[in-house]
Amino acid sequence: MEGMTYPASVEPAASSRGRVLLAKPRGYCAGVDRAVQTVEHALDHYGAPVYVRKQIVHNLHVVQALEARGAIFVEENDEVPEGSTVVFSAHGVAPEVHEQAAARRLKTIDATCPLVTKVHHEVRRFASDDYDILLIGHEGHEEVVGTSGEAPENITLVDGPESVSEVTVRDPEKVVWLSQTTLSVDETMQTVDALRAKFPLLQSPPSDDICYATQNRQAAVKVIAPQVQLFLVVGSGNSSNSVRMVEVALAAGATTAYLVENATFIDEAWLEGVETVGLSSGASVPEILVQEVSTWLAERGFDDLQEVSHTEERLTFALPQELRRDLRAARLAGA
């Protein structure tokens, strides 16, 4: 969000129709920032093309910007020419993906978010003790696919509280729940409560699996939602954390809430009868898209902009070690 400034309040024009409450924190989390920088540094250092397995993060703007610089996005390793460089997305991959890459002699850079890696470690640890692992998450999501691949024989996917009735385990005394990192905190705990009612000895992960940034963005939405008639969340439709923010806004009291890829996706009819608009963005959304939405709203009379801060985020993650090693070697060679 560097370079983008939002004043605490903008003096409304004579034609002002209402105000915008802008959530903070919003946008890029540390894991997304690290993943995007990983591809950018890889392009700078190795040169184009650099292949990326799956979308590096779930945002169309980011993907298109990296494509313009020479990144090539593929679905699977067999689309990458042998011996080429491939970056694994922030959502994480199963062990077999690493094995496939090794078989094709690919140079791999793993941009998996460290918080997702933590869940992978938890899966391996509980699986080694032969626990049944109930993974709360959405079927088909890349993070869930990667996490499940760590111990498929031990994992049962639980997609919301309504699916708990179908869950069976081998030993109700050796069962633990883990979760996808980008879920709604509230819905996850509803699922956990339903699971615990069925399996009273259910164990919890040693630390919260839901990403700090997901929780912070949802908490900021909850503060604003009761004050607005319309809440706009900037994000892509395949971004789980962005979709959850819309659900949180509605549950917390916003009259209406929509997910928009960018300002062109907003329907002006949504503003009818609205006095206050809430605005935030998912964890994979660059700040420029939020600025464009805020400008679009200001042009229609919603020019009283007030940033509502819930918490400050200062966490950063280092680049993947294999990339840091190569960048360091290049610096030393040029010294």
Topology:
Blueprint: E1 19-24, H1 30-46, E2 50-53, H2 60-69, E3 71-74, E4 85-88, H3 95-103, E5 107-110, H4 114-128, E6 132-136, H5 142-148, E7 155-158, E8 175-179, H6 185-198, H7 212-224, E9 230-234, H8 240-251, E10 256-260, E11 276-281, H9 287-299, E12 304-309, H10 321-334
Parallel strand pairs: 1-11, 1-12, 2-3, 2-4, 4-5, 6-7, 6-8, 9-10, 9-11
Helix pairs in contact: 4-5, 7-8
Question: Would you write up a description of this structure?
Answer:
With 335 residues, the chain is an alpha/beta fold. Helix content is 37%, strand content 17%. The protein is built from 10 helices and 12 strands. A 5-stranded parallel beta sheet has the order 10-9-11-1-12, sandwiched between helices. A 4-stranded parallel beta sheet has the order 3-2-4-5, with helices on both faces. Helix 4 runs parallel beside helix 5 and helix 7 packs parallel to helix 8. The two termini are 32 Å apart. The relative contact order is 0.19.
Order of SSEs: EHEHEEHEHEHEEHHEHEEHEH
Question: What does the largest sheet look like?
Answer: 5 strands, parallel
Number of strand segments: 12
Output the radius of gyration. 21 Å
| DSSP summary: helix tally | 10
Structural class per helix/strand content?
A: alpha/beta
Give the N-terminus to C-terminus distance in angstroms: 32 Å
- Give the overall form: flat
Helical residue percent band: 25-40%
Beta-strand fraction estimate: 15-25%
Biggest sheet: strands side by side, in what order? Answer: 10-9-11-1-12
* Spans where pLDDT lies below 50 across 5 or more residues: 1-14
User: What's the average pLDDT?
Assistant: 94
